[in-house]
Amino acid sequence: MIIAIDGPAGSGKSTIANILASRFGYNKLDSGAMYRTVAFICADDGIDLNDEDAVVRRADALDIAFDTTGPRARVLADGRDVTDDIRTPATDRIVSAVSAYPGVRSALLPCQRAFANGRDVVAEGRDIGTVVFPDADLKVFLTADPRERARRRVLQRHPEGAPDATTMERELTQTLADLERRDEIDAHRAVAPLRAADDAVSIDSTAHTIDEIVDRIVELANERRAQ
Ligand code: CDP
Of 51, 160, 186, 198, which is most buried with the most CB atoms under 10 A? Predict the structure, then answer.
C-alpha cells in the first residue's frame, strides 16, 4: 500500500508520516529531504544557485541515501551525513528555488519511485499524490493556518522549550515570512506545483492534535485496505 501525504511546510506531514510508518511497519519516504540535500550540497559546493544547468548537473550526479539503521534516520549525500545541514534556516531559504528547476525534479523522481519498489510506503512531500505516486492507495492533503504552521516550526527549533515572548514573536514573524515565500514558490512553479490531487482527502490540522489526525488517517487507510 502507498499512502501519500502532501502539504505545505509546518502542516504536520513529517510527524504524522513518521507515526503512520511506524504504526503500520511501512517505509517512510521523505521527499523534501532529497530536495533539501540537493540545495544544501549545491550551496556548499559554491555552485551559483541561479545557474540552473550547473544545479541540475550536480543533482544528476548526486547519490542520496537514507540510513535507517539507527534511532534517527540519517540522510547521506555521496556518503556524507547531511542530516542536520539540510534542516537549517539557511537551507529552508534556498530549497524552493532549487526544487522549482524541472531538471532537479526529474533527477529525483526515479529515486523516489525506486524507493517504493513494491514495498509498503508512507511518502510525504508536495507532489506525491499528483506526480510521484498518482496511483497511491490513499492521498491526504494536509493543511493548517499559516500562523499556526509558523508557530510549530519555531517550537521545533527550540526542543528545550518555548523562548521568551519577545524572541518568540520575532522568530514567528521571520518564520512566517520565510514559510509564505516558500509556499508561494512551491504552489506557483511550472512543474509539479504544490496542490491537492483531485482524489486526495483534505485535512485541516490547525485545531486538531497529532493523535486526532493520525486516527483519522488510520481510519481512512483501513477503509481503503478493506476495499
Ligand atoms: O518540512 P517542510 O515542510 O518545511 O519541507 P520539506 O517537506 O522538507 O520540503 C522542503 C522543500 O522541498 C519544499 O518547500 C519544496 O520546495 C521542496 N519539495 C518539493 O518540491 N517536492 C516535494 N515532493 C517535497 C519537497
Answer: 186
